[in-house]
Specification:
By secondary structure, the chain is of the alpha/beta class. The protein is 30% helix and 22% strand. It folds into two domains: 231 residues, Rossmann fold, CATH 3.40.50; 78 residues, TATA-Binding Protein (2-Layer Sandwich), CATH 3.30.310. The protein is globular and about 65 Å long. The termini are far apart.
Length: 338
């Protein structure tokens, strides 16, 4: 038996598989946005299943607190780019899978360039702003995506195919005000629920990529502590701002420098939304003598004035040691530039 057939023989004998199913997976291109608890589990599952090409997008780096609930990371990875680590692990799991790591912040300026050309988008993020952006792109360009989220002991997922059913804004018409929803920092998350929701998301992805029947518009919610599984039917809203009126408010917005607090720690992310990458070697040389500088993968870490500043090639910086955005912006301007 050829090596490839040996690798996939346990799934290939499933009654749900036919002669062309594995080849369909091999020819698929999937982009996974977010490499935390959901993204690491989902990327590992799809790589093992034989999806041909995976693009991994995540703006953050590995922290010790991530190890509690993520797959693929270990202690030696702390401080490294999440996307880069996931790419390395996938290549170790299945060398036939083509991978691309994008350690960047998905935003309106780069969304079309990053997302185009993929058969399916998988949402493994931890914020609604990115989900509204994914939804805008999905509706505008007709690319299906699968929403997934976890918090506390609960998780939920929904298939979004704008050509067949409701979009995300049919379910959540408006973005809730900042601070009104629980986060991993305020509510926590049990480490078993991401595995369950990832398994559901990955299974739906496999079904879609192989042309099997997929339910669109059913919001599935599972509380793993209470063992409570429920499904709510979401109806398409003809007056929906996005799929009804075809207004893409999040995709079409003009973005300058943005900042926001980072879930789970005393930190602020600054994103200048630069079109060109910065030269990390030159920046490291510039910062030498001002504080402690460490270069790792696609980032450098700079410690000064009781702050730790992690700078990525796309110009983003995560500034630890403050929750005040104005302080973080001032530090960014002082040490990195406007």
């Amino acid at each position: 038996m050829p090596e490839e057939e040996k690798r996939y023989d346990r799934q290939s004998i499933l009654s749900q598989w036919d002669e062309g199913t594995q080849e369909d997976l091999r020819n698929s291109r999937v982009i996974i946005v977010g490499c935390g608890a959901l993204g690491t589990n989902t990327s590992a599952t799809l790589a093992r299943a034989g999806v041909g090409e995976l693009t991994i997008v995540d703006r953050d780096f590995v922290e010790l607190s991530n190890l509690h609930r993520t797959a693929l990371f270990n202690e030696a990875d702390v401080g490294r780019s999440k996307a880069s680590v996931v790419q390395e692990r996938i290549e170790e799991i299945n060398s036939d899978v083509r991978t691309e790591a994008l350690p960047t912040d998905l935003d309106p300026l780069n969304a079309e360039r990053v997302l185009k050309g993929h058969d399916l988008i998988l949402d493994c993020t931890d914020n609604l702003l990115t989900r509204y952006l994914l939804n805008d792109f999905s509706v505008k360009f007709g690319t299906p995506w699968i929403y997934a989220a976890v918090i506390e002991t609960m998780g939920m997922t929904m298939n979004v195919n704008p050509e067949e059913g409701p979009c995300f804004r049919c379910l959540f018409p408006e973005r809730p005000p900042s601070g009104t929803l629980p986060t991993c920092d305020t509510a926590g998350v049990i480490n078993t629920i991401p595995q369950v929701i990832s398994a559901l998301q990955s299974t739906e992805a496999i079904k879609y990529l192989t042309g099997k029947k997929v339910n669109t518009g059913d919001l599935l919610t599972f509380d793993i502590w209470a063992r409570d599984l429920s499904t709510v039917r979401v109806e398409k809203d003809d007056e929906c701002v996005c799929c009804g009126e075809e207004k893409y408010q999040f995709l079409d917005s003009e973005v300058g420098q943005t900042s926001h607090s980072v879930c789970g720690r005393e930190a602020v992310q600054i994103n200048p939304h630069m079109e060109e990458e910065i030269n990390l070697d030159e920046l490291a040389e510039k910062l030498e003598g001002l504080g402690s500088v460490e270069a790792r993968d696609v980032l450098i870490r700079f410690e000064v004035e009781n702050y730790r500043i992690t700078v990525f090639k796309d110009g983003r910086a995560i500034i630890e040691g403050t929750e005040e955005e104005q302080v973080a912006r001032s530090l960014y301007s002082k040490y990195i530039g406007n």
